[in-house]
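Q: Got a minute? One more chain.
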Amino acid sequence: MNLEFAGDFVPAPLYEELAFSEYLHLFDADIPVLSARLLWPMLKEEGLAHFKKLAHMESVLDDEDVVDLFNLSRQLPGLERILPAYRAQRLEQYHFFELGRFLDAEQSLAACERKFSVARPDRSFLAEMRKILQAATRDRYSAMRGGEEMDRLRARIESTEELLQKYLQTHAERIFIETGLKMSYPWPRELLESPSPAISKCPLLNVKKEGEIWLAEHNLDAPGIALLKQRDELVTRFEDLTARLLVGLNNRLSLYFDRFSAYYAGCQRRAYRYLLLAVKVANGLSLPRFTSATGCSMRRAVMPVLEKGGNGCVPLDLDLGRGASVLFGPHMSGKTTVLKSLYFFLTLVRAGLPVPADVLRLNYPEAVAIMLRSSGDMQRQLSSFGEELTFLAGEVKPGAYLLVDELFLSTDPLNGAELSEIFISYFAARDMVFFCTTHYPTVLDIDTIALFRMLDGGYTGPGQKHNVSTGADIYRIKRIENGAEKERLRVNSRPLEIALRFPLSEEIKKEIRRKLKNKME
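A: Always. Here it is, folded:
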């Protein structure tokens, strides 16, 4: 079982950067009833129903129960290859073996499901199917049961086959004694040279030339030919009887095809849910909780790609309400990482997956769009500024999530600041979550938005990692609550402090320190 995102669900650059493929690998498992699953963004009704079923299972199962159900579902054989034959009433003997195995494994799974009340589909017809199969087959569904006539034919075939094999073995031994050739019936023997008199005159062989090669073929006598004919006649009678039995068995089972195919699809859906819950348990994930009010709240949300960095990562706490929220701060402070993290979690929810967070509560994100800094689109003859305006001009559905990194950094600072104020104020009045990052100080004067800032701390210079041990402030954000905080941000000197950490010339660093000193005075 492997999961893949469909088509353009996630832009390729973000798919690689945010390591979605590594997250999907958490769900790799050997589940015969599920070979692969293509993940499409779920619409609201489908997504809410999907997570409601998972939440119900979560409420009635403890961790051990989840593992038990998951392991039982892994015992179900996959039947996709035999369902077309079942529909066409062309099931063969080997098909019944797989069908019987499924019915037996399903019986154990269903008993466990009834214990925990996680599934209540009608399955009474499966007992009838099992009864029909058990009456028509033997040896755990591996051979047809045809009554006395079939048993007699099977015994005669076995007896005749035993006599025939003894005859053919004696025949091959006589050939070897008389000619030195090792022969195995019915295959001929190629001779690269002209055969010797012992070979060409041997009555047990039929020697002929084909092109440049001589062939020595078996030449059976009358008793051998009679044994072959007897065996073939018995096998033909056995196959005819088997064919009649197969027709009858297919006819009886065909009455249940529609119900069985629907039930099988339900087993696949439940097996997928058991997989999601088993991975959730094994990796400490959680299910999102949904609200009718527009907004998103997450607690201790961890980006796996950051955690993999080596020092762990500070979990993200974030509260975004209806309207516009702005994350303010200088470059290289982690704003873009917060934006991409939110996109990562929203994408997992739209795909129906559990998330690496203690709590994620939000309105269902049916519509999600993200705009990162770009250099434009030459094919559409758009500059980066034009591309950003085109993105913001799109239709916004109620409850949508619109994420923009460095709003209007694509134009000059004066006009970019004014446009930012206009668009942020516009989105603040909409039923949506508009979340953008910026370092334009004019946004500090907008009263209708939620304003956040990145907490300072820890940048060590180019090519070096942040100090992301527990308690560090990297990638943590804080709500700006009052005017005093806003005033401190207007005279922010963080970019100058970061610049001092780079290997710049001493002359430039001296000027930076002078500017910092003036700011402090």
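A: Residues 375-381, 457-474 have pLDDT under 50 and may be disordered.
Q: Perfect, thanks.
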